[in-house]
């Protein structure tokens, strides 16, 4: 399972964003079930950032977001662009019906 969280960060907000992101990335890096983690800024648009994580399964990701970690993770994840972020192999997903908004 892959999770892609994107962030729009102005130059003026960059230092505070990085200060919130660093402990969250460090915490996620130590979570059971994490396969890989990448965090970086877009090469063409310096205000666009991405956090890309790959997990053994959706349960591992959900446990990583558990109550013990929320105090560190939510300040970062609350800044993410409002867009779908979780992806998986089409065969694992099965029939994928969009949620209503």
Q: Can you tag this structure with a few keywords?
A:
about 100 residues; alpha+beta; Alpha-Beta Plaits; four-stranded antiparallel β-sheet; 4 helices
Description:
The structure is a single chain. This protein has a single domain, classed as Alpha-Beta Plaits (2-Layer Sandwich). Helix content is 38%, strand content 25%. The chain has 4 helices and 4 strands; from the N terminus they run βαββααβα. The chain has helices at 14-29, 58-64, 67-77, 90-93, and strands at 2-8, 34-41, 48-55, 86-87. It has a 4-stranded antiparallel β-sheet with strand order 2-3-1-4.
Number of helices: 4
Number of separate structural domains: 1
The total beta strand count reads: 4
Q: Could you give a short account of the major beta sheet? A: 4 strands, antiparallel
Radius of gyration: 14 Å
Percent of residues in helical segments?
A: 25-40%
- Numbering strands along the chain, what is their spatial order in the largest sheet? 2-3-1-4
The proportion of strand residues reads 15-25%
CATH class value: Alpha Beta
Tell me briefly what this model is:
The protein has helices at 14-29, 58-64, 67-77, 90-93, and strands at residues 2-8, 34-41, 48-55, 86-87.
Blueprint (SSEs and pairs):
Blueprint: E1 2-8, H1 14-29, E2 34-41, E3 48-55, H2 58-64, H3 67-77, E4 86-87, H4 90-93
Antiparallel strand pairs: 1-3, 1-4, 2-3
Helix pairs in contact: 1-3
């Amino acid at each position: 399972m892959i999770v892609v969280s994107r962030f729009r960060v102005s130059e003026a907000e960059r230092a505070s964003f990085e200060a919130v992101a660093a402990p969250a990335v460090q915490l996620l890096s130590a979570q059971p079930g994490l396969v890989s983690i990448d965090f970086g800024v877009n090469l063409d648009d310096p205000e666009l950032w991405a956090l890309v994580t790959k997990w053994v399964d959706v349960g591992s990701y959900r446990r990583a977001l558990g109550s013990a970690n929320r105090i560190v993770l939510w300040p970062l994840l609350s800044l993410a662009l409002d867009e779908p972020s979780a992806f998986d192999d089409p065969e694992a997903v099965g029939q994928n019906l969009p949620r209503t908004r």
